Structure formats: C-alpha cells, structure tokens
C-alpha cells in the first residue's frame, strides 16, 4: 500500500470541494493511512490554508 497513488476530494465546512492527488506514505492495519500530497497547485494550497487551523496560534 505504501507508495500507492490516491485521488480524493476535500470538503470545506461551507460546502466548497476540491480534488487532490497524493500517495500513501504510511499505513496502519485497520486504522488508516497517511498521505503525501503531490502536484499541489495554487488552488489546492489556498484551500488547505482555509480549512486547516493556523499552527502558529
């Protein structure tokens, strides 16, 4: 599973949606997996900035 490409869509609480691509970078059986984003454009970066909490606060 590690290294496997994935495509997914994230949804903002206001209903906005945006497609993302990535690859599995680690997995835990029956728990989930981590994704490394690939091909992030300006639209994806701006979307992530809107939905993720500010870590500097």
Distance between the termini: 35 Å
Specify Rg, calculated over alpha carbons. 13 Å
Q: How much of the polypeptide forms β-strand, as a percent range?
A: over 45%
3D shape: globular
- What class do helices, strands and sheet pairing give? alpha+beta
Counted up, domains total 1
Widest β-sheet, arrangement of strands? 1-2-3
The share of residues in helices is: 10-25%
Task: Report the uncertain regions.
Answer: none
Order of SSEs:
EEEH
Arithmetic mean of pLDDT: 90
The total beta strand count reads: 3
Number of helices: 1
**Biggest β-sheet: count, sense, barrel?**
3 strands, antiparallel
Would you kindly provide a written description of the structure presented here, covering whatever features stand out?
The structure is a single chain. The protein has one helix at 42-51, and strands at 5-11, 17-28, 32-38. Strands 1-2-3 form a 3-stranded antiparallel beta sheet. The longest helix has 10 residues, at 42-51. The chain has 57 residues and is an alpha+beta fold. The model has no long low-confidence stretch (mean pLDDT 90). The termini are far apart. 18% of the residues lie in helices and 46% in strands. The protein has one domain (5-51). It is built from 1 helix and 3 strands. The chain is globular, with a radius of gyration of 13 Å.
Quick synopsis:
This protein is an alpha+beta fold and 57 residues long. Helices cover 18% and strands 46% of the residues. The protein has one domain.
Layout: helices, strands, pairs:
Blueprint: E1 5-11, E2 17-28, E3 32-38, H1 42-51
Antiparallel strand pairs: 1-2, 2-3
